[in-house]
Amino acid sequence: MSHNPAVQIPLEQPSKGAPHLSIWAVILVLVLVGAFIITLLTTSTPSTTSIEGVPAVESASVLYENPELVIARQYAALRVARLNDAYLAVNPELAAAHRYTTLTLQRAQDSLMATNPELLAHRRYTADRTAP
């Protein structure tokens, strides 16, 4: 039997499952991307004066009608602040990062307020409406 180098017999047959797996991988990626987009579209950013997604005006009226809720909210805020301060006290790197982030956010907010008088007016209106 002569050996012809032009004729080659494959030793293994190509896998028939590979295209099937890549289709499922593409479908999985599309589903995950779609779920992420839906989550972004349906999740609203709550204002700083809202109570678990309730708009600020509604939360102000709820707080006005329920003084015990105001006390509970103030107590919870105080507890969170104390825990935060205690954690920052034992983590100097985190405390430095927290200060930097707070200053950066404050500067950005001040800059934004300076360039948008409507936003500043809305902020004052919201602060007046939610003041206890």
Explain the layout of strands and helices:
Blueprint: H1 18-42, H2 56-65, H3 67-90, H4 92-115, H5 117-130
Helix pairs in contact: 2-3, 4-5
Description:
The structure is a single chain. About 4% of the residues have low confidence. The protein starts with 17 loop residues before the first helix and ends with a helix. It folds into two domains: 30 residues; 82 residues, no CATH class. With 132 residues, it is mainly alpha-helical.
Termini separation (Å)? 100 Å
* Helical content class: over 70%
Number of strands: 0
What quaternary form is this?
single chain
SSE-based structural type: mainly alpha
Overall number of structural domains: 2
Rough outline: elongated
Note the main sheet: none
Detail the poorly predicted runs: 46-50
Radius of gyration from the CA trace? Answer: 29 Å
Q: Name the beta content range.
A: under 5%
Average predicted confidence as pLDDT: 72
Number of helices: 5
